[in-house]
User: Fold this.
Amino acid sequence: MKRDFTQRFSFLVNDVARLFGAQFDRLARERIGLSRAQCRVLGALAMRGEPMSQAELAHHLELSAMTVGGLCERLEAAGWVRRTTSPVDRRAKEVQLAEGAEKALDAALHISDGLQARALAALSPEERAQLVALLIKARRGLMESSSDAAGEVQP
Assistant:
């Protein structure tokens, strides 16, 4: 029996994220020389507004410490971040945005805005606002249900 998953919420959300991510990665590499993962690191640091340990950054991005370490090494070599030894734990590295990183973030946001405009071109401004509001509600519902010990929401 052939099954059609194209109308299922989880399939659609994951497929949109995959397509958006792949296109963003290609454009970011071409235009600003940064990968999507590197842009995520810069974005997380910008949202935090203060230095983060590499371990905190890895936890926040849901990546391994080794992966974040490699991303931070490349970003530091390119001058986008600074890493310093933590004043609290000499074994830990703290990461913060370097001068000029805002320019890279602005370029990444410009790429994202262009992709978003293309993805949502068929929607009216009201539909776009409604889509975002509905996704926020869906996220909230999943966050609230994550405290369920079984991890399942009853029908």
About this structure: The CA atoms of residues 23 and 40 lie 15 Å apart. The chain is about 65% helix and 10% strand.
